[in-house]
Amino acid sequence: MSKADLVALVADLERYLGDPYEAGTRMSFARVLESDEREEYPNSFVNQLRRFGVHVYSLPAEQGGKAGNVETGFNLMRMVARRDPTTATAMVITNLSFMPVWTAGTDEQKRLLIEDFKHGGGLSWGLSERDHGSDLLANETTAEKVDGGYLLTGEKWLIGNATVAGKMAVFARTGKRPGPAAYSIFILDKHTAAPETIEELPVETLHGLRALDLSGIRLKGAFVPDEWRIGREGEGLEIALKSSQAMRAVISSLALGAVDTTLRVNLDFTENRVLFGDPVSDVPYTRRQLTEAFADLMVADAVSLGASRGLQAAPEQVSVVSSVAKYLLPTMLEKSMSELNTVLGARMFLRGQGHYSMHQKMLRDLLVTNFADGNTVVNLRNLGQQLDGLLAKAATADAGLRGAAAERVAVLFGMDAELPVYQPWKQELFSRGLDDAVLAAPDGLERLRSLAEDAKDAERDRLRRAAAVAEVLLERIAPLAERATRLKADLGRGYSQSPELFALAKEYCLVHAAAACVHTYVHSHDVLEDPLPSAAVLLLQLERLRRQLWPAELVTDQDDIDEVMRVLRHLYRDNRMFSHWQFPLGERAF
C-alpha cells in the first residue's frame, strides 16, 4: 500500500469514527471514559471496528485478509489507540494471537481462522503461566498424544481475551525431556471441547486498560485434533519466539496513539488557557515541555517506522529492531507523559474534567506496552546476547556491507518505498550482527550533510548541527565495544547477566534511535508535507536522545524551540497526527 493509499484509508476510518470530542460519535472520548469507569469490555467499539474491517488489514491477503504491508495494520491500530488503548488492545490480541499460525500454519488453518474472524470469532494467545512468566522453557502445560489428537492439561494466566475469545492458541509441552524442542502450539476451540475439560479463570482487576479481559484458562484434558497442531511437533518455541518479534514491533502502535492524544489534550489546555496576558503554551518553560514531548514522540515514530517495515524488508534483523522498539519506546514515552502531568496541573488528577480526563487514562493504559509480550528485562537481555556481534559488525563492516545496508535502509525508512511481501517464517532468532540502521549510519550522515548544503539560512545551520549531534551519538559504538571488552574480562561468566551489560544494551538503543531519526529524515524527506520535514524537529529529537547520556547539556536554543512549536501548532491546528505520516484526524467541532 502506497503512502497516499494508507493516508486515505486512515482518513476513511477517522470519518467513520467521527470527532472523539463529540459525545454522540461512534467512539467518543466520553463513551470511552464511561466504559473505562464501568470496567466494561468494549464490545460496542470492537463491533464498530470489525464492521469497518480494521482487523482484516492485519491478516494475510492470500487466505482472505487484506494485509499488504504490516505498517497498514500498525497505523490503523495507532488510530484506534488514540481514542482508546483498551479497544486497540482487545482488537490487536486476535491478530497477534494469529501470528503463530501465520508463521507456521497450513494454508487451510489460516483460511479457516480468518473466515472465523470475519464472522466475529476471536483468538487469544495462551503463552504465559502464573508461576513462570516469560520463562517459556519452564511452562508446565502438557499436550498428551492420543488417537486423533492431543489432550491439553495445565493453566494459562494473564491472557488477553482469554474469556471473550472462542479459541486460544496454546503453547504446551509435547516432549518427554525438557528443552527447546519439547514444546508445540495448538489451536483450542473452547466451544467444541468437552465442558468439563475447560475452566475459565476470573477476569483480573487492572490499573490501566480497566475494561480489558485479562484472565486465563485451566485445562483438564481438553481435546485438540491433530489438524490443529501448528507446525511440526517440537517447533513451538521457535514459532513462539518469531511471533513475539512481530508482536514487539507492532505493540508500540498503542503507545504512539496514547501519547498523541495526551499531547493534544495538553495543547487544548495550553493554547486556550491565558495566564498574565499570554497563552500558557507561550511560557518558555511550558513551551519546551510541549516541544520535548513532541520530539520524543517523533523519535518513537521513526524507530517504529523502521521496526514495522523491517518485518518485511529485513526479517533476519527483526530480533534486534523489535527489541530496541519494545524497550525504548515505552520507557521513553512514559517519561514524556509524566512530564506533561505538570503542564495540565491539577486537571490531570481529576477524573470528571471532560476530555482532560483522557490524559490520566492514557497515562495508565500506556503501561501495558512496557510489559506485554516481553518486558524491559526480556528485551534488554535479548539485545545483550547479541551485542558483541552488533558492535563488532558496526566497527569493522566493509564498504560492501555498508552499501547493502544503505540500500535496505532506503526501504526501511522511505515511507513511500515498496515493501516485499511479509513472510514471517523468514524471521530469524538472531541477527548475526546485522542492524542496517546502524551499519548505514555513515551513509545517512553524508546524505544529511548534503541536504544541509542545499538548504538555506536557519534550516542549513540546524541541519549541520543535527548532523554533528548525530555523529556524536553514532560514534558511541567504539566506546561501547571497549567497555564490553573490559567488562567481559572483569566479570567473566557473570558478564552475560550483569547490570552493566543491560546498561550497554540501553545505550545501543540510543545509537539505533539516532540512526533511525536521521534515516527517516533523509529517506522520507521528499514525501513529507508542510510543516515537515523540519531541521529544528530533527535537532530536538537528537538532543532528547543525547540528554539520556548527558542530561544537563542542551544543543537547542530558544529560536529552535520556537520553530519546533510552530511545527507542532501547525499539525495541531490542521488536526493532523503528530507523526511523519501526518494522518488527517476526524473533523473537530470546535
Summarize the structure in words.
By secondary structure, this protein is α+β, with helices and mostly antiparallel strands. It contains 21 helices and 10 strands. The chain has helices at residues 3-17, 29-38, 43-52, 70-81, 85-97, 99-104, 107-118, 236-272, 284-313, 318-344, 357-365, 368-371, 376-396, 399-412, 436-439, 441-454, 457-474, 477-491, 499-524, 535-546, 558-573; strands at residues 123-126, 142-146, 149-160, 167-173, 183-189, 198-201, 214-225, 229-230, 274-275, 278-279. Strands 1-4-5-8 form a 4-stranded mixed beta sheet. It is globular. The chain starts with a helix and ends in a 17-residue tail after the last helix.
Itemize the secondary structure elements and their pairings.
Layout: H1 3-17, H2 29-38, H3 43-52, H4 70-81, H5 85-97, H6 99-104, H7 107-118, E1 123-126, E2 142-146, E3 149-160, E4 167-173, E5 183-189, E6 198-201, E7 214-225, E8 229-230, H8 236-272, E9 274-275, E10 278-279, H9 284-313, H10 318-344, H11 357-365, H12 368-371, H13 376-396, H14 399-412, H15 436-439, H16 441-454, H17 457-474, H18 477-491, H19 499-524, H20 535-546, H21 558-573
Helix pairs in contact: 1-4, 4-5, 4-8, 5-8, 8-9, 8-10, 8-11, 9-10, 9-14, 9-19, 9-20, 9-21, 10-13, 10-19, 13-18, 13-19, 16-17, 16-19, 17-19, 17-20, 18-19, 19-20, 20-21
Structural class: alpha+beta
Distance between the termini: 33 Å
Helix run count: 21
Strand arrangement within the widest β-sheet reads 1-4-5-8
Rg over CA atoms, rounded to whole Å, is 24 Å
Fraction in beta strands = 5-15%
